[in-house]
Amino acid sequence: MLSKLTVATVSALVGSLAATAPQFMAPRASHVDAIEREAMPPQNGVRCPNGFTSDWNNTSKVLKCSKSNTTFVITVCPNAMYSDYNERTGRDNCLPTKAPGIGNPIASGSRPIACSVPGFTIVNDTPGKRDRCEKTETQWAYPNQL
User: Fold this and answer.
1) pTM of this structure
2) Rounded to whole angstroms, how far apart are CA atoms 95 and 85?
3) How big is the CA angle at 93 (ends 116 and 121), to the nearest 5 degrees?
């Protein structure tokens, strides 16, 4: 059971937090002013940061700065019964696992490969014989004032 002093202290803390919560959630006036200044086009023009491609829309007078980043991960055999990776021209595949001590596969046929991380796409024979997975993401940046 809480003492009266503890209940009073907790009540006071909750009350002070509730009174200051809107200040944490609402942007400060200086922050809003900075956002509005950044949204306005500078008088002398703008350019995209180094490494970014510029896309100027003459109708809307908007400059978009973007850069494509491609990430690669390896391909794997996700099924333990088909864990013998088979590199070949075109799409690689997974062959049946050889039984320990026997050497003969327990299963037959083949199974498709998969990316080691979800969200990637398999690309055949890139850069060599083995397939790999890749994902391209677009990074955006604000233009810089000249």
Assistant:
1) 0.55
2) 6
3) 40
Backbone angles phi, psi at 24, to 5 degrees: -75, -35
d(CA 16, CA 13): 5
Question: Could you give the CA distance from residue 80 to residue 111 in angstroms, rounded to a whole number?
Answer: 11
Q: What pLDDT, in 10s, does the model give residues 84-136? A: 999 999 999 999 988 877 777 778 899 999 999 999 999 998 777 899 999 99
Q: How far is CA 20 from CA 15, 33, 96, 125, in A?
A: 9, 22, 64, 59
Domains in the chain: boundaries: 1-40
CB 91 within 8 A of CB 125: no
